[in-house]
Amino acid sequence: MIVGVQPLAGFDKLLHYRVPEALRAHLRPGQLVRIPIVNRQHLGLVLETDAVPDVPVEKLKSVSGILHDYPALTPDLLDLARWMHGYYAARMEAVLEAMIPAAVRDGARLKQEKYLAPARALTPDEHAALARKAPKQARLYDFLKQQFHPVKKSLVLSRLDTTAAVAAALVKNGLVREEARHVERVAYADGWSGGEVVAAQPPKLNEEQSAVVGSVSGSLAKGKFAVHLLHGVTGSGKTEVYLRAVEEVLAAGGSAIYLVPEVALTPQTVARLRGRFEAAGHQTVVWHSHLSEGERLDGWTALASGRARVVVGARSAVFAPVHNLRLIVVDEEHEPAYKQDETPRYHGRDVAVYRAKLAGAVCLLGSATPSLESVANVRAGKYHLNTLTKRVDDKQLPDIHVVDMRVEIMRTRGMVTLSRLLVDHMHRRFERKEQIILFINRRGYSSSMLCRKCGHVEECPHCSVAMTYHRADETLKCHLCGHQRGAPAVCPKCAAPDIRWRGLGTQRVEEAVRRVLPRARLERMDTDTMSKKHRFRQILSDFRAGKIDILIGTQMIGKGLDFPNVTLVGLVDADLSMHVPDFRANERTFQLLVQVAGRAGRGDRAGEVVVQTFTPQSGAIQFARHADFNGFADTELAMRKSFQYPPYRHLIHHLFRGPNPEKIKFYSEHWVKKVEAALGNAVEIRGPSAAPIEKVKDEYRYQVWYFTHRTQKVVTELVKLQSEFAWPEDVTQVLDVDPMSLV
Ligand code: ADP
Ligand code: ZN
Known about the structure:
This protein is α/β, with parallel strands linked by helices. It folds into 6 domains: 2-100, GIY-YIG endonuclease (3-Layer(aba) Sandwich); 112-182, Orthogonal Bundle (Arc Repressor Mutant, subunit A), CATH 1.10.10; 207-392, P-loop containing nucleotide triphosphate hydrolases (Rossmann fold); 399-444 and 504-639, P-loop containing nucleotide triphosphate hydrolases (Rossmann fold), CATH 3.40.50; 447-502, no CATH class; 650-737, 2-Layer Sandwich (Alpha-Beta Plaits). It contains 23 helices and 30 strands. The strands form 7 sheets. Strands 11-12-10-13-14-9-15 form a 7-stranded parallel β-sheet, sandwiched between helices. Strands 16-26-25-17-24-23 form a 6-stranded parallel β-sheet, with helices on both faces. Strands 2-1-4-3-5 form a 5-stranded antiparallel β-sheet. Residues 189-197 have low confidence and may be disordered.
């Protein structure tokens, strides 16, 4: 037996090994193995088991050992790895490292404990004989017989005050079996759910929900690949639909993967799944990067062994090695957080769809603001569309008031943080003891310092961006590279004392709120305040428990969370997401508005939203205000079509960076000529041009865009050309296929 192994040792080449007799029966494709390379042992993953080597068999070395009993990659995951390697232009090793948790690759041994359970039933005569001859054995046997599960040996022995010899005698006579089991460390076993009360009893579905569940069931019953897009307004009960689909899959013996865009949302979802399925004996595994090594390894083992059949997690949970995959749920499918911003730069949603295809499973994408990519797939007839148009129990969608900040500024003749309308509503809600959330998508105090005399704006010395003022510690910070300096009292350029702080950040909003509502209990939530590990959970559960009146935060608090007592949501600066050089800016703004509005009025009281903007007439704001998703999608898709932007063509982004701007410009221009010659009209090339942020961390950046209908072919060609091109040492280049951010 010869196997082809991808080493995880820093290079991309398939190596061949012989398999010693003793390992043959156990070795399967997708398993992690130890292999000798030169004189050292390395880790590798078995890609093929009937490989034909390119050297004589006698010369091959042998596999030294197998890491786990279960393959790290199931057959569909092996195919998925090959696809990602090609489509995302990522090295195979990088793909495997993204797919297999480090804890599993490290092969850390699980802590094992011995467990005891009765091996067979005794006849009354046998039992009587045992009780007479060996009463201690009989007592132990009886105790085990009463348990539903195997019990930990050390525990029973001490509890019954008996010895290992007694247990050994029972094992020897075949009456009791002893097994080694892993001690499981279950993530979130403390039942933390942010204080949300989780009802185990499923609610009765409303008419719309029933129709959606019926449609998804239809696809599940067929047992074939299908994608459903569930477009449901915020609070319409999408989660309940996901739960019913998972339930159906479990009942049929299959497995389900449930993806959420943010680690922060996992506890809430896990609590809902456990509340629903634990009683029926189904373990829900949590899968994300913030778990301890032990938790990860145990969860992985439970899934790989087939013992657990539900997994919840962020992006990488799409790679869980579950058996008989029937369903992948992708909640908030429009979220850019699904895209990984390092190699392999994969999109969790797109990978989910592809894996479902390979596994012949159903992929259920859900959102209140579906991505235009998914909408286009529906319109092209590739995805089924399901809709939930009403909030559960006919709760009203919140009223959205748009405040024209140009008018506010004229009225007050100066900078305004909170408009009069927003302040009025805040007073009213606070007096009624209702809760308020204010969003401002920038941390710090203000976005830049401007000298009124000479016009100087202080920039980061390493990046071409303005530095943000943080009043809490009187510093200017660069949000790109972290560089900081003390806040100047006078202009660093002309020494005039006439400094003005422009733009809003969370700290400035906090200050303004303290001024208008000094009695309110207030918390600010952004990455500056969230450095402590459990602070995030703490604030969210305090807020849910009503110990906080007003929560101020970046979009980190805008996603998916459900707080019934929030009746007012303020979007302090809606323009932040709009004026960025990205063709998705409108889509992002629309999504932000609708999602943020979705946090209001989820309980018994109606909610309202105040949006502050300098461009109230813009389409994204007007369509969001009227909750007109289709109107927005029609307009935006027409725009995308006329420019042939995604979703009408795929976009590949190519970034060149390095310390010397002339050199980067030269090489990127030279490169583009090569691509033009090789690819001709398979691709439309734009650039090279300076990237929107020209310098980051002392490196200059140039970019090239490729537009194409034939992504796979173009990527393959680009990778081939890259390997033939003579790159200088100090030019780094990165290909990003289907990029989600262009700045
Ligand atoms: P979405 O994900 O669409 O924003 P959720 O799934 O969070 O909405 O549902 C909002 C609330 O409504 C939740 O508290 C949920 O338990 C509840 N809910 C969902 N479906 C029903 C139903 N059929 N009857 C009563 N309550 C429901
Ligand atoms: Zn910087």
